Predict the 3D structure of the following.
Amino acid sequence: MAQLTDDCFAFSGALLPLPEMERLIAERITPVTDTERVPLRGARGRVIAADIKAPLDLPPFDNSAVDGYAVRHADLAADGDTTLTVSGRLTAGARADLVLEPHQAIRIFTGAAMPQGADTVFMQEDVTIAGNQVTVPKGLALGANRRLAGEDVPAGRVVLPAGTVLEAQHVALLAALGIVEVEARRRLKVAIFSTGDEVVEPGANRGGAAIFDANRYLISALLEQLGAVVTDLGILPDDPAELSRALAKAAAWHDLIITSGGVSTGDADYVRTAVEKIGNLVFWRIAIKPGRPVAMGVIRAAPRKDYAANAGAAFCGLPGNPVAVFVTFVRVVKPLLLRLSGARPQQLLPLPVRVAFAYKKKKDRREYVRVALRRAADGEIEAFKHPQDGAGILTSLTETDGLLEFPEDTTSVAPGDRVGFLSFAALMG
Ligand code: AMP
Ligand code: MG
């Protein structure tokens, strides 16, 4: 379905540094081109296909930021109180054409249009009322408590560039601008499989040597979070013939196929043999830890009448251990998925926290360590490493808050050092 060249995942060199991986994805992967009109209400998570410009000023008119009294600043005495006659009252939504005459004030409420001639608003807490007279103190700046038309967004400005993934705040901005429909890229269609003779469906009869499938549930939840349409194709046995049959079939209907298991050194051949029969495969050994090689490829779809014969699906073969699945998903699959979906690359900025443990690592690779955050006695946030760091330890993901990111050039840290932290929410969103 996606238009990918056979060699789009090829690279030279034994280890692929993360920035190089990001560059490969940006340069070689072309996003899906189909777009559709999406009503605002269903737009969260969608990728907008073109820049969106503001059709009007926001706010649309000058208005009061507080409950109080609108005045002409020129009427105010510089050296003492000023008493003005209250000549009218403006509630939010009332009218936009009331005129404020000199030496008068208008009772005004938050969100009401500024009367013509008024430029400044006193908060009601700061004034004294006597009958229809209001006395205001000196010293308030011209324009205080007034919100100007267009101060948020002037009409005509690009407010959301193409490739923005719409979150609640973007939807709110579009609503405020009166935009009720957006042109969005179509959602990605992603097929997922687990592989492994030992893997069975949760809840099914489980033999003594079998485990319940955690990965399909993990991957499917991660994909849904990213707005993909997921087809869950179940569990495949460690059998290249069956694997390639299932993958070729899935390639005809999906943009991306993700499997887990069967790519570690011991059994790499299942996936390698299967994919190489029906497409192209390379292993990305990325300079990260945890980071088993991830199998990347393009699977040619069986030709179908309804679209071009060169259409194929991207393929990601993730490791089998759930923690390795998680890390490779957020660091490899997610950037690929965002690119395919037409989204702008995500900026991940780790926030510095204090580490409560010593750690040594190899130079020239990035390492991710699962940590829980706690507030220390001195008020600072401290990161504690999960005691079990095996790639199969699922509770190391449920009992922690996110990952510390140790940069390539770091070789050791001591307690008290600061290291960048990425929350699970930041990594998954
Ligand atoms: P593999 O890469 O296939 O050798 O798998 C590595 C480890 O991950 C093995 O212990 C597998 O049993 C385990 N594993 C593979 N697939 C799954 C899965 N879907 N859910 C949970 N664990 C899995
Ligand atoms: Mg396996």
In short: The mean pLDDT is 94.
